[in-house]
Amino acid sequence: MTSLSSGSADAEVRRATIRDVARLAGVGTKTVSRVANDEPNVAAPTAERVRQAMAQLRWEPDLGARNLRRSDGRTHTIGLLVGSVTNPFAAEISRAIGDVAARRGSAVFTSSLDEDPDREFASVAALMRRRVDGIVIMPIAPSQAYLQSEIDRGLAVVCVDREPSGIAVDAVRSDSRTAATIAARHLIKRGHRRIALLLDREDLWTAQQRRLGFLDAIRGAGLEAADCPILPGLRDSESSSLAVARLMKSDAPPTALFAGKNLITFGAVRALQRLGLQHRIALVGFDDFEFADLLDPGVTVIAQRPSQIGRLAADQLFSRIERPGPRPSEVIDVPTDLIERGSGEITAFS
């Protein structure tokens, strides 16, 4: 039997492999795999010898490797693909999913797509190489049909924040259309007839839904569409700030703004403050953010519930992983909250 103190110099100068551990412990690689994955049917003395060899060689199992899958066929890892990890909304979703995964003994591989379809394809491919058990994805590509072959082979997929295209999978999101209608009506009730909508990229599902909700309210109130401009393509606070500054200096500036994303709200607040209009131009933002109540005036928002969205998405994913098989896909709508803080309550006659 091989002594635990007789590891070769070659094993010490390169990264140890499962074969090195097996050779040092005097067992087969399958036994090492069983011990690494805490599987039964390994004698206690043998398991201890394997663990000592693992520690001596500083070897850790590659949970993505096929030959180290557990007896249940799972790697106990999931993937999380979000639009941007720097966005507070996505960060809260990520944190909530991580908490659920930790309680279920799974690790999370998180990647930021930066709203780039090519990165979505590449990130999914990387996760497939790791053989994750499931993916939570904030889709950005025009279609997610490319995932169907993986779903047919047992991959669990849940979309978050946005609905998918080309596949029928679970989705957990806010009802952006209804929420946008509520925000616009809130401004209309305060006498505003010239309301501008500031939006993200038009190809994003959420931006499309918020545009539809805004128009529902405008048309429902009998307002002139020409008096309610829609400015799309505002991806960050800087582009939003510049757009609002131009809008306020136009011949017919709006009396109210509806910002369709938290980063857009940041830019709108900055522009209004620079122009000294923060107490004259009403503002409602989509997504709450830290310190919104400390500004002057406080920012009225449509607050999503990202932690709840993340928890529900993770629960759906693990339900699919643990109970595989054909089931109808579900769309779960998480409520939003209109939080009045002052900016959205400025009247058109202020």
Q: Can you put this structure into words, describing what you see?
A:
The chain has 350 residues and is an alpha/beta fold. The chain has 12 helices and 12 strands. The strands form 2 sheets. It has a 6-stranded parallel β-sheet, with helices on both faces. Strand 6 (195-198), helix 9 (205-220) and strand 7 (230-231) form a beta-alpha-beta unit. Helix 2 (18-25) crosses helix 4 (44-57).
The tally of helices reads 12
Q: Round the mean pLDDT to the nearest integer and report it.
A: 89
Order of helices and strands: HHHHEHEHEHEEHEHEHEHEEHEE
Largest sheet: 6 strands, parallel
Classification by helices and strands? alpha/beta
Number of DSSP-assigned strands:
12
Beta fraction of the residues?
A: 5-15%
Which strand order do you get reading across the main beta sheet?
2-1-3-4-5-11
- The helix fraction, in percent, is 40-55%
Distance between the termini: 88 Å
Overall 3D form: elongated
Whole-angstrom Rg: 26 Å
Low-confidence stretches: 1-13
SSE blueprint and pairings:
Blueprint: H1 9-13, H2 18-25, H3 29-36, H4 44-57, E1 77-82, H5 88-103, E2 107-112, H6 117-129, E3 134-137, H7 148-152, E4 156-160, E5 170-174, H8 176-188, E6 195-198, H9 205-220, E7 230-231, H10 237-248, E8 256-259, H11 262-275, E9 282-286, E10 300-303, H12 306-322, E11 331-334, E12 337-339
Parallel strand pairs: 1-2, 1-3, 3-4, 4-5, 5-11, 6-7, 6-8, 8-9, 9-10
Antiparallel strand pairs: 10-12
